[in-house]
Each structure stands twice: as C-alpha cells, then as structure tokens.
Amino acid sequence: MAQNKIEELELKSVYDSIYDSGVFGDNYLGYRYNISIDDVDSEFLGYAAGELKKIDVTVFTDIEEFSYSLRAYRFN
User: Fold this and answer.
1) CA distance 34 to 37
2) What domains are defined for the chain?
3) Cα(73)–Cα(39) distance, rounded to whole angstroms?
C-alpha cells in the first residue's frame, strides 16, 4: 500500500512539499496513510541536494495498533 502511494506521486513528476493523509478506500477498509514530502538538506550533496526530495509514507490501521513506514528519495 505504501509503495502504491509513492507510485501515485511519481506519476505527478513534480514533488512539491506536502503533508497529506487519507484512507485507502473500500479495497483496504480500516487502513489510513500519512504522506510527507520535504526538501533534503545535505552538506555532502551540496547543490544537488536542492533538487532532492524525501518522501515518507506511513500506513496504519484505524486503531493505530500496527503501522508500516517507507522512505524514498527522488530528484525533482
């Protein structure tokens, strides 16, 4: 589910800084997600870090008993 959310973001091709949350719908009742996209600050990467985005997706149950987090990095 988390990978599917990242794939949805990749279709947009532009990674603006966002914070979003929602539900997966009827196929995955009881599951929700949080998404955040942020800029990456890195002295090591220097100028290249300006185009790099950090994408965090967390999938969790409605009762927040279980969760799974996935982090990916993409160049904008």
Assistant:
1) 10
2) 2-75 (3.30.1300)
3) 10
Stated pTM of the model: 0.77
In the chain, at which residue ranges do the beta strands (DSSP E only) sit? 18-23, 31-39, 52-61, 67-75
The alpha carbons of the chain give a radius of gyration, in whole angstroms, of 14
pLDDT (tens, 9 = 90+) of the chain, 76 residues, equals 788 887 777 766 666 768 889 998 888 889 999 999 888 887 877 776 777 888 999 999 988 788 999 999 888 7
β-partners of residue 75 are: 52
Q: Please give the Cα distance from 55 to 40 (Å, whole number).
A: 10
